Fold this protein.
Amino acid sequence: MLLNALLLVLSSQCVWARKSEPSFDEADAGFFRGSDKYDFAIEVPAAGVECFWHFAHQSGSFYLMYLVQWATGMANDQRLFVTVSSPLGSLMASKNQAVGQMNFQTEVTGFYRMCFGNHNNQFGGIRVFMNFGVIYEGFEESQRELEEGQKVLNSTLGGIEESVQRLQNQIFHMWRHYNFARMRKGKDHHLLLSNLNYVTWWSAAQSFIIVLSGYLQLLVLKRLFRTDSSRPRC
């Protein structure tokens, strides 16, 4: 009995220590398991929600950046309610801002859900630019070790590869900051276009009102001096 209890405890500990990697069959042999990133823009309708699913392995660094570029219709609130949920359904991060960044470590392998809700505007849509992805530190080294089996790499070569990997990660983070600055520039561009249209239409309306008021004043003056008799009215 004591031996069976000990084996049961050890087996339970082994189960909890395993990674939550799903078992792929032959049809999934070409499944992409490396770092990936995406950036694109979407339009969220009034009081609507747009959701996306992104696959991530365990022990990865998940990041999401978004920015509300402009609003349409009668939307006057550029805040966006964004949530990221794990494959188990637990909430990993949430924000209710016009511009936001989220970063967290993936603890479970599966599809992470990102939802963008335009709950603050009931009569207007918004356009959102997003950039998200997963970074796996040391992914290339682990893949090479699995392929080469028990081959021992040279210490100098290992140091060079580690430095190159670190440099690649730093370049990637610099690219993220550049992409975020590009999103802000796009927002400023749309704001300038919106202000230009507003000034143009408002100037045209004021010019029309001035011309119309002048025409009405001229009609009133002409009616004051017009009479059927030889004597003027005033």
User: Anything to note?
Assistant: The domain at 34-189 is CATH 2.60.120.380 (Jelly Rolls).
